[in-house]
Amino acid sequence: MKYQAPKGVIEYFPPRSRSFEWVRGTLLSQIKRSGYQLLELPVFEDTELFTRGVGASTDVVSKEMYTFLDRGGRSITLRPEGTVGALRAIIEHGLDRGALPTKVFYSGAFFRAERPQAGRGRQFYSVGVEAVGSDDPALDAEVIAIADAGFKALGLKQFRLEITSLGDAQTRALHRVDLLAFIEGLDLDEATIARAEINPLRLFDDKRKEIRDLMDKAPLLLDYLSEESRQHFEAVQSYLKDLKIEFTINPRMVRGLDYYTGTTFEFVHNLLGAQSGIGGGGRYDGLMEQIGGQPLSGIGFGLGVDRALLAAEAEGVVDSAAFLTDLYLIPLGAQAKTVALSISQELRAHDLTVDIVFGDRSLKSAMKSADKSGARYVVIIGDTELSTGSVDLKQMSTGETTSVTLASLVTTLTTKLLTW
Question: Fewer CB within 10 Å: N-end or C-end of the chain?
């Protein structure tokens, strides 16, 4: 029997896994520079955490969660998103009881039982941040700016930032009355009516064209903002302008999760078709309290590593040199292999990436492997090199060779890589 990965699972393997690693590492580097600390989370949680936190009216909870009973009969769900689990951890470990805001980041695989498409898998990869304990609009701008910087660091240019405000409780209460009155006049199926009764905003997020057309003249939440919400949203816009971050206001944006309030945003890439969202997030006032924590404000984002990679490939900006092997050692003979192992240890101790050919292969076969590996430099060690103590350092991209002593290999290679 030939085993295969489950349908809809996005896997990465060489050489494309190098590009995936580059995307993830680049996005995370911008986050780490902003004072966020790692939060390593479990990939499954109690099901109730997601039904309570994400929202029963969402497609995520009603259709897309991988839920099962464990051996103790407890209902467990593979995490479909990161925010609720991160807040659970912040509450459980008292991170919200120190200096605020608490700023954490996480990355890993997430799971949704969706129909697989390009850029949308049943297992997908994200990096995210959460900043909890401050309602400062400048923090909103910083969170957006970190995501924007991450995409720009990848070299992406054909993306846009869309923002809106979902207001506060007063805003949504006023809007809900008029929105429900509008929806009552529409010809909808029973399932859609039931969904609207739980959260009428979900109809703005409906993917069906006929529903989108019906909602074209629906009252917009942005027109109902309280004075406090309006001032907050205007301050966020002002900060973004000061940071030279371009954006457009999308008054119909609600995103796919019920917990968003206030500032909400999404990054959309122009070359990805239907699955154009490459990341987004927003503020979630009230969510901490809803899952048993303090009534603290928070804001965060999730960036799709898979879609960011597709965007980088579509724009032709993937860094093909990322995570390449610095040096490929080809030993010819038993004594040369011993020397190669010793050299590799020394070079790796100097933060260089070194690989060795194993298996007593021919020189021609070994050189083909070096070429396929994307190695920057190659060194062949045979009887002559062992007797003289010198080797030829070959740059694979140009074919240029430099004669160096084994003793000076670290210094020479490090110097050459600095100008790579």
Answer: N
Roughly how many angstroms between the first and final C-alpha of the chain, as a whole number? 47
Residue 247, domain extent? 16-168+226-315
Residues paired with residue 377 on neighbouring β-strands, in sequence order? 327, 395
Domain assignment present for residue 203? The answer is: no
List pLDDT tens digits, range 211-249: 888 888 899 999 999 999 999 999 999 999 999 999 999
For residues 157 and 290, membership in a common domain is answered with yes
Task: Mark which of 315, 335, 363 sits at the end of a domain.
Answer: 315
Q: Is residue 195 part of a domain?
A: no
How do strand 159-165 and strand 248-249 relate by DSSP bridges? parallel
pLDDT category at 144 given cuts 50, 70, 90 is very high
Contact 374, 324 (CB under 8 A): yes
Structure tokens at 327: 């040096």
Please confirm whether the linkage preceding 116 is cis (ω < 30° from 0). no
Note the pTM of the prediction, 2 decimals: 0.90
Give me the CATH number covering residue 28: 3.30.930.10
Q: For residues 269 and 406, give the distance between their C-alpha atoms in angstroms, rounded to a whole number.
A: 49
Residue labelled with tokens 């600095």: 418
Those residues with Cβ within 8 angstroms of residue 160's Cβ, 6 or more apart along the chain or in another chain = 246, 247, 248, 267, 268, 270
Q: Which of residues 288, 315, 342 is at a domain's end?
A: 315
pLDDT of 420 above 70:
no
Task: Using alpha carbons only, give the angle 288, 286, 197 rounded to the nearest 5 degrees.
Answer: 120
Q: Are residues 52 and 72 in the same domain?
A: yes
CATH number of the domain to which 360 belongs: 3.40.50.800
Q: Report whether 305 contacts 24 (CB < 8 A).
A: yes
